[in-house]
Amino acid sequence: MKLLSIPAALLIALFALTGCSSSDAGGGRSESAIAPADIDEGAEGGSAQFDIAEQRELVYTATLETVDEDPIAVAEQVWTTAAAFGGVVTADERSGGDEWASAVLTVRIPSERFAEAMDELAGLADEETGRTVVTEDVTGQATDLESAIATKSAGLERLRALLDEAASLGEIIDLETELVEREAELASLEAQLASLQDRIALSTITYTVATPEREATASAGYTGPGTFAEGLGVGWSGAVGVLRAASVVLGVLLPFAPLAAVALAGVFVPLWYVRRRRAGTVAER
């Protein structure tokens, strides 16, 4: 019996160790099963932070400068493109003629399509020569205006309640005066917030398109006529110019010809008479 009890004790100990190992392995699997949950929770926290960043109130203002052989045609396409993006053209100034023309347009585009619209507008012209984008974070300004509006609105409600309970005429006048002032302040704050929200919702793009500048080509050395025909043309033009100038001078001097003749006669006739008399006197001697 003693001999049999020893192997039995060993078997019992072996089964106990095997159970502990299984328990440890199961514990490891449970810890590994918890890990993905922890990771998911961390991922949700990062996503929440990203959402907070996405909630920033931003105002986009941009300038886009381009050149094209037909700026007026490009300006017409800007109107069509703005409408396609859900925007509008608020200003359109065009100038120039056949040789040179330009157009400056102010375009309001929904902010969520701002980058896409910039690329589309740039592609309307032959070449983009300049681009400037300014981003303004107005989150704090918008929050302050909303808070101030809420405070003013609550104050107005209290004033209206006091006005309803006022008994004396003086108290009513004071409360009404204060109420008018508070209402004006509230209207001003609401107008500021509406303007800011409009700038947030619609980005502003100043679009300029102009005819490209022609580069002057200066040739060094001889710049005169290159052929006989060109030389003949230049000579003929010069001769005509000389004759025209001479005719102008003759036309100017011709009215003075009679006066010049009288003046010359007054000088030369007495001299001729004196010389004739002297010649007669010499002949008599």
Can you walk through the features of this model?
The chain has helices at residues 2-54, 71-84, 114-122, 139-165, 169-201, 228-253, 257-284, and strands spanning 58-67, 88-96, 101-110, 127-137, 202-210. A hairpin with a 4-residue loop joins β2 and β3. The chain is an alpha+beta fold and 285 residues long. Among the domains are: 58-137, Alpha-Beta Plaits (2-Layer Sandwich); 139-199. α4 (139-165) runs antiparallel to α5. The protein contains seven helices and five strands; from the N terminus they run αβαββαβααβαα. Strands 2-3-5-1-4 form a five-stranded mixed β-sheet. It is elongated, with a radius of gyration of 50 Å. Mean pLDDT is 79; it is low at 1-11, 13-53 and 216-220.
Spell out the blueprint of helices and strands.
Blueprint: H1 2-54, E1 58-67, H2 71-84, E2 88-96, E3 101-110, H3 114-122, E4 127-137, H4 139-165, H5 169-201, E5 202-210, H6 228-253, H7 257-284
Parallel strand pairs: 1-5
Antiparallel strand pairs: 1-4, 2-3, 3-5
